[in-house]
Amino acid sequence: MVQQDKLFFDVFPDYHCPDKFRDLFEHVHVTDVVLSKSDKQLKIYINSRVIIPKGNIYEMEKSLSEYLFQQRMQVKIIEHYELSEQYNISTLTDVYKESLFQEIYHKSNVLYGLVKNAKWYVNENVIHLTLDDTFVSRQRSIYIKNFLEHVYKERFGYDINVGFDFTEEQKEAIRKANEHTLELEVKRIVDRREEIARNNALNEE
Question: I need a labelling partner for 125 at 20 to 30 A (CA). Which of 22, 74, 79, 189 fits?
Answer without folding.
Answer: 79
